[in-house]
Amino acid sequence: MKISVAMITFNEEKILKRTLESVKGIADEIVIVDSGSTDLTEEIAKEYNAKFHKESWKGYGPQRNSAIEKCKGEWILNIDADEEISEELKDKILSIINDEQNKKEIFKINRLSVCFGKKLKHGGWGTSYAIRLFKKESGLFNDNTVHEAFETNKEIFKIKENIYHHSYLTMEDYFNRFNRYTTEGAKDYYRKKKKVNIFDIAINPIYKFVKMYIFRLGFLDGVEGFVIASTSSLYSMIKYFKLREMYKNGSYLQKDNNIKNR
């Protein structure tokens, strides 16, 4: 078997079909590890003959590794449920895995964000490389529950062809995730014993907005560029404020984290 697609899911019925449709023609198998979806995620996955496994949520790194371990392919394409493989990238992947002279084993691929229906090419959202294609035995993700990283001692190469990362479908979708993401980000900082001060809560969000909207030319993405810079700065403020609450009174730390927070 040449290539396996490895994915983790939780209530992805709105976006999963587009993702699975995009890997047609390159995937020899699709392996999905799901952490308790209550919508039509499983039914959609099985329409594409995916091998669907239900497991309790262990954190992003361990969950990804669980999917990878179940794959039988020589190559792994590890993508998220909200990522779409472009036609150009599909051709590039096929050229790599079918090249018998190829000695490269790990590739990071550019993710072009699509927010509120628009492809964002500026503000730091148009160039975001992540390891997505690799030979199965070349490495694994670390155990971070959020902000997981692929660990390897091998050289990493770049693929410039795009993955379309459908980050947020609507503003409602953004804020549905906002609360969970900021809580998990704060929990991660708390576990790492990161301290918080007034600069993090009041000044850092302003700096983040200026960096994204002005220095990284987010204004060229129009209204969507302004909105995503604004909400990103708010995200930063709320995450740090929640971290402050954790240190102050233990807020959020008692909540059950056995399901995937997406």
Secondary structure: elements and pairs:
Layout: E1 3-9, H1 16-22, E2 29-34, H2 41-47, E3 51-54, H3 60-69, E4 75-78, E5 83-85, H4 87-97, E6 106-115, E7 118-119, E8 129-135, E9 140-141, E10 150-151, E11 156-168, H5 171-191, H6 198-215, H7 222-249
Parallel strand pairs: 1-2, 1-4, 2-3, 6-11
Antiparallel strand pairs: 4-8, 5-11, 6-7, 6-8, 9-10
Helix pairs in contact: 5-7, 6-7
Low-confidence stretches: 256-262
Q: Strand content of the residues, in percent?
A: 15-25%
Number of helices: 7
Beta strands, count:
11
- Amount of helix: 25-40%
Approximate shape? globular
User: What would you report as the Rg, rounded to the nearest angstrom?
Assistant: 19 Å
Taking all residues together, what is the mean pLDDT?
A: 93
Oligomeric organization of the protein chains: single chain
Report the sheet with the most strands, covering strand number, pairing sense and barrel closure: 9 strands, mixed
Span of the ends, CA to CA = 31 Å
Which class do the helix and strand fractions yield? alpha/beta
How are helices and strands ordered from N to C?
Answer: EHEHEHEEHEEEEEEHHH
